[in-house]
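[Meeting: bench + compute handoff]

Bench side (C.D.) handed over the final construct sequence. Compute side (W.E.) agreed to return the predicted structure before the next meeting so the bench team could plan truncations. Sequence as handed over:
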Amino acid sequence: MKKIKIGFVGLGDHALQSHLELLLENHHVEIVGAFDPDIASFERVKKEYDVQLTRFETYPELLEVVEAVFICSPDKFHFEQMREAVKAGVHVFCEKPMCCDVMEFGLLHAVFRHAEENNLVVSTCHPRRFDPPYLFVKENLENWKKNYGDVISLTLDFTYHKPDGVKDLHGGSMLQDHINHELDYMNFIFGVEKLTAYKLIDEFDRYQVSGIREDKIAFTFGGTRRLDCRLYSESIEIRFEKGTVHIETKSADSYFYYHDNNENPTRFINIYPPQTDYDVRFKGLNDNFINAILGKEESYISYDEMLLNSKASVIFRERHIISL
């Protein structure tokens, strides 16, 4: 059985917990090594996963011996490392943001075109598309619309722990790190529509954006990283003409309330969606990338979708109003 030779760029927590650990269970993969200036990260992999990764002194040396690479380095290196990999004929899974400024975004389409012309898979990290509670919403959306009317608005919110005291994480912009997730999920469940959005605030530990789509669905995206406890809590709220569904992805506190009732204008109905499972969401993401390389399935995300998500994250850094 052919195994795809995989290399890593960066061996931080996310690379190990969300990708390497799960890929070790994939029988179609051989993880051959990594490029990371931090020698201690290789010792950690050996200690925690009993895997001895070859340490490559330079990134080009890694690209010479692998067929695919997971780019999990700091944001500022993503675009150039992705471009180098594609130029070398290597499949790429790149953490988001895929680019950090307008100049890099202007070159992103050429990278995708080169990859397509050379039958290379380029993918990125939007795990909500594989996460049980987020899929629960997509699977039930049409039935909810039949019962409760058209969608009026969508609110996506998150409440995370403090980012370990690092105030320049993602260039000090939580929006650049996060809006691509929220935008991607909205387009995943409703389809892509032109939109206008307004930036209300963007700090290293908080962001808030509101807008309206051409189909008249309003949306609010935002969240904070200010908790003392270590937690990733997210919520989804969809307002219909006659009711509202509220999903807490990490707890059982989800409900539907129905407004069109004379006797009880607000009738709460308990619902029990599945809760977030990080192994499920990232296994689905990783397996899709490998299966796309093997030709077993299509990549879960298109180049047009990645371009749109990237455009929002870089242009909104510099503007208060955007139209996409």
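W.E. noted at the follow-up: DSSP finds nine helices and 15 strands in the chain. C.D. will use this when planning the next construct.
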